[in-house]
Amino acid sequence: MNEQDWKQEQERLNQVTEKLQARIEQLEPEVAGLRDQAGEIRKRFWEEVTVNTSTHEDFEETVQSISQQEALLSDRERSYRMRQQQWRSVNRLLPSPYFGRIDFIEDGLGIREQVYIGVSSFVDSDGMSFLIYDWRTPIASMYYDHSPGAASYDTPGGRITGEMELKRQYQIRGGKLQHLFDTSVTIGDELLQQVLGKGADPQMKSIVATIQKEQNAIIRNDNSRMLIVQGAAGSGKTSAALQRVAYLLYKHRERLKADQIVLFSPNPMFNSYVSTVLPELGEENMQQTTFQEYLEHGIGKKLKLEDPFDQIEYVLTEQSTKAYEARLQAIAYKASEAYLQALRNYAGWLGREGMRFRSIRLLDRDLITAEQMEAQFYGYDPSIRLANRVTLLQEWLLKQLSQLEPKEREALWVDEELDYLDKDQYAAAYQELRVDRSIFEFSQAYENIREKMSNKVRRDEGDFDYAEHEEELLRKMIVKEHFAPLRRSVKRMQFIDAEQLYTQLFSDKDAYMAMTGETELPELWPLICEQTKEKLSQSELFYEDATPFLYLKELVEGNRMSTEVRHVFVDEGQDYSMFQYEFLKRLFPRARMTVLGDFGQAIFTQATELHGAQSPLIRLYGESETNLIRLVRSYRSTREIVEFTKSLLIGAQEIVPFDRSGEKPLLVQVDCEEQLAEEIAKQLEALRAEGCDSIAVITKTAAESRDVYELLQAQSCPALRLITKETPTFEKGTLVIPAYLAKGVEFDAVLIYDASSKVYDRESERKLFYTACTRAMHRLVLCAAGEWTPFLQQVDTSLYEVKSLSQ
Ligand SMILES: Nc1ncnc2c1ncn2[C@@H]1O[C@H](COP(=O)(O)OP(=O)(O)OP(=O)(O)O)[C@@H](O)[C@H]1O
Fold first, then answer.
1. Is 110 annotated as a binding residue?
2. Of 697, 594, 600, 742, whose CA–CA distance to 232 is shortest?
3. So where does ATP get bound (predicted)?
């Protein structure tokens, strides 16, 4: 890069900055003016409108004047919002207007166009020349996809080809040019080096300036119904997903709104971690939720749901007994497509027999019995779909209630209630009666006029004595009060005994096979039945039962669908079962799905493999509608850490570290627990002294986290924070956190609390151990009291340093 280039770039930057400033100065009064105008119109809305309803013409005029005023107000508000958006976008550009440039000569045109790329577009005052192109414009895609030489990009009108003569990167801070790089192949390793070398942030950053080609393919993929991304730990899956949301919102801005996109994240803390990326790019956040939240919403408060964290805590901490084996088998079976099919068949069986209803009861007495409902239900034409028959039954029940209600008014219990109405209740009753009375009096007056006008005498006496009917009205009110919750519960389908319908499945093996057509069952089925029923009897559901329970409920009661949603993103996609995917597909019938995950981090028992011919996920929408992208380059950790962590996994040779070097992972071995806490405290101090601001002490389980937190506090470790599944936000500092909650996030340094064979001994825990180690960006320290876990014993000794304090 010569001095001349630098000077020219500096001059251009100055010019653009001036123009941005000028635009801000121009927009500021416009924004303020429009805001004031809209405010004024709103305030004086009724003053400007002439309201007169005396004649038909007056009435029409009034309506017209209101709608004119409304149109004026919404026009001002729209202009205000547009100007404000422009103002925000120019302000966002000001400190760093662009980060890249390509010079492109389109075939046949012979003109060299300089394309500067930033977080949004900026057009010169002539309204024609783009001083900055939004990174999401078609032409900007060349910046990510090509190196200098022949290049092309796709537009709605077809492919444009040409020659890219230059590709340049900028670092501009506070309006000052700090670095310039001309790049040839990938997007500036130098810039990426700098970005990745920095400390961890409590919130994720956008990566627009350094998006890599393979990530760009994910971001701009626009033709698959299902996009599956299998990517190594730290390969930028979450980052790419968020940039993809921004891209979709830009590309389809006329018809796609942020709330039509849903992201399922692994835990609430992760939600807060990623929540700043889109606003940083000038876009609104999509809807963010966890699958658990969704289940709780669907199942309601009557049943207490176990969450995936309690489930994994059980799997990791319990001893290997028969009951434990049964639970593991249950988790696997209840996550399978076979179980899904079994439930479908069960719904078919319920169409013929076995439905479970709850009687509708009033004051300890059956008003409509379950048997009556059953008779009514199975009396419907069996060719009508199950859920539709349930709707018919619901209508029938509401009708029955309407017929029963007047009959109840004369019942003995109403007399009793009348006697026992206290003062407040009377007051409330009279209040209501007064309203009734005024309605009554109004209708009385109306009837009188009608009578006079039509010259017809009313059929009734017209001399309704209100006082005489007071008691009757009170009775009516009392009964109505008791019937209202019954109606509500019918509308909410509570006459279906969903718990019993689910429990019934677990009575015995032969019955289950008969009801579901299932032929193969887990070996420990009787124990599985016992465990499931036991839990249900306490009004609780295991996590593995929650989705199937909701699925069955919907098969019977009818689907709840979200037809508004157009895109569903599932992060940490390996942690969802095929059962859950089928469920999501039904729930969002009009949405495209993007699933991002890493089978190497599949720590839950119900995990789904995402890639390869084995992946059942490809079947969800079919091969022709599915696209699979693999990311093998890992950006988060230093080369030394990636080389080490990838050797912990079996068959992970393909993972390629980004070339950023640091210290090798350090293995520290001590003799006993007491020494361990002491050593960790020392290591923490050393890491802080090195400048690591965010450090995680990662344990295997939540129970271990609690113990470690106390032990380290006893060592007087300063500013420690214990992270539990309830922790809502992610902050810098030193955290003690169980591995499964550290999923998706990253730290400057990671300390594995006890990497001994006492703690990590089951082969099934390998991926959990790997996940924990891959959270480290710059430093990884593993400590153990006693013998190392077998996962470490297989690692090549050249990949780490050792410090042994063991005798
Ligand atoms: N193109 C890029 N430019 C700059 N930084 C990047 C890029 N891609 C990824 N990173 C950084 O690498 C780190 C890991 O990214 P991210 O969390 O998106 O990966 P992931 O694949 O979701 O990881 P995991 O599966 O381990 O949770 C983040 O700090 C992210 O900013």
1. no
2. 600
3. 231-238
